[in-house]
Amino acid sequence: MSPRLQTQHLSRWYGNILGLSDVSLEVGPGITGLLGPNGAGKTTLLKLITGQIKPSLGRVTIDGQPVRGRAEHFFRIGYCPETDAFFEGLTGWQFLNWMLRLLHFSDSEAAAAAEKMLHLVELYDDRHRPIRSYSRGMRQRLKLAQALAHNPEILILDEPLNGLDPLGKRKIIRLIREYGREGRLIIVSSHVLPEIEALTRQIILIHQGKIFAQGDIHEIRDLIERHPHVVSVRTPDSRRLAAELIQQPYVVKAYFGDDDQNLLVETRNRDLFFQFLLEAAAVKGLRVEEITSPDDNLQAVFDYLVGRP
Amino acid sequence: MIREHGYTHWDGHLISRPWPWWPITRLNLKLAFKKKHFRPIYVLSFLPAFFFIVAIYISERMEDFRFMVRGSRPQFLEVNPNFFKNYLASDFLLFMLILIMVSAGAGLIADDLRHNSLVLYFSRPLRKKDYLLGKISVLAFFVLSLTLVPAFIFIIIKLLFAGSFDLLRSYPWLPLAIIAYSLFLTAFFCLYTTFFSSLSRNSRYVSVIVFAIYIFSDFLYGFLYGWFHRPYLSLLSLKVNLQQVAAFAFHQKPVQPIPWFWSFLIIVSFCSVATIVIRQKIKAFEVIR
To answer: Is B117 in Cβ contact with A71 (below 8 Å)?
Structure first.
């Protein structure tokens, strides 16, 4: 079973500047978050994936077929660019229609698809207003609409949630997740961690043109052995538990959090730690109210990987 | 919720459609005709064609118009290769073509650069050559509609009025010359305009440059010729170069006593450089800022 999208040793230089270095990826259906700070190489990678720019080295294939030089792939790909790229004088409806005409939709097909999509991104009432009068959020939704309008199997979304208000973000997140559930291959880039976290657990971490990690956020976290996992345990027996835990060789540190009942434990082996906790609860009658892993979020993983303290 | 990522094997074929550039041409033609100042310019450009058709009519009905013409038949009423050369290389037609290029062509690429919209084009099933073809076809439509189409209409009208094929029998190469020179003009005007359009993000600036360079080249030639009286100075004028090539294409005496080949070489060299620059400018969108 091979994945649908593959990159092999993909590199791109802009003169002396390295945009992307030796990126080999395999991406399957579902939502994959591409995460990295500004200038990390996210847009370069997405443009290479869509064949819009030529790699200096390496290649990209979709279902085994090379992307570069095969513009026909765009019948199957929807691409939402990071930057605004509108013909400001056109109305939202005209713009979307025109984008669909470029995909060889007939007049009636384009009109129907544009109307449906404008409803979906809630721009239907503003469809006859020129784009120059659109707010940032409306522009973002229109950009997304042009990527989705031809019902593509593969969606490449470069910072699609930029400029949206919280409510708008939630709606777009829901929309993207629905598309992901339909089995489409979706890559969403962002430098905002909670955005990616809300969309998917499947992530690719990119920094300075290099891929730091790829996979499930938990799997990635487990791979970072030199960084202990932090687990928060809420229990009325926190001091007793701390005394027991500190004797275990895989526990590095145990300290109290906001209050006396919140015990934070740093461990090098999460599996053994949880096994111990289970036994403590079952055998020693320890009452555990809540277990959370505060550093299981993307920010923690990202900070570890890029070497932030 | 635990969801398995199923793998879907794609068995389809990538669809390749003919004429992927056509939607670009269609939209830009529509946009051009929507411009208020463009429509009168375009209509006015057909004025010479109208006069030439009248001239063909008069030439075939000389007896009816004897009261207007004294002595022998004037040269402009002779429908021969010179007649076609006079139409296709007339100062007025070339000037009107430049005005059309200014109003319909200046923003073709410049506006896309201004709106960063190349990324949208190239996230559609379009290659760079499709994009350029789509843009150039807009200008080609206007140039050919004012050169090739009227010239062939002249031939048809002449044949109809004369009721014989004498014109084509006497000059069998004439249709070929019309096609060749019309295509030459089309290539020049399209590349001339798109070249400047690709150099700037400001279409007004491009308009000024497209117009000014054409006019200034002719002005410079006139000015320097007034001082030095050297016919080779005519190579500085874009208009004279186009007319020199026309004279050769229609087997007529050149405007200036210099070989037509130099003029042809200058125009072809310009077109070649323009092609390279346009390709580079379009390719520059690959640089991510």
So the answer is: no
Name the residue among B28, B64, B94 with its Cα closest to residue B237.
B94
- How far apart CA A292 and CA B94 sit, in angstroms, is 78
Of A222, A241, A272, which closes a domain? A222
| pLDDT tens readout for residues A177-224 | 999 988 899 999 998 877 888 899 899 989 888 998 888 877 776 766
Nearest by CB to residue A47, choosing from B111, B116, B288, is B288
Tell if the CB–CB gap between A72 and B24 is shorter than 8 Å: no
pLDDT attached to residue A1: 41
Q: What is the pTM of this model?
A: 0.80
**Beta pairing partners, B105:** none
Does the distance separating the beta carbons of B125 and A71 come in below 8 Å?
yes
Residue A60 belongs to a domain: yes
Q: In the predicted model, what is the mean pLDDT of residues A96-125?
A: 91
Domain contains A69: yes
Please list every residue in chain B whose beta carbon sits closer than 8 Å to the beta carbon of residue A28. 5, 7
Give the range of the structural domain holding residue A194, as residue numbers without chain letter.
5-76+152-222
Q: Of A142, A162, A62, which is closest to residue A97 (Cα–Cα)? A: A142
C-alpha distances out from residue B6 to A63, A183, A188, A285, B232, Å: 14, 7, 19, 43, 74
A27 and A45 part of one domain: yes
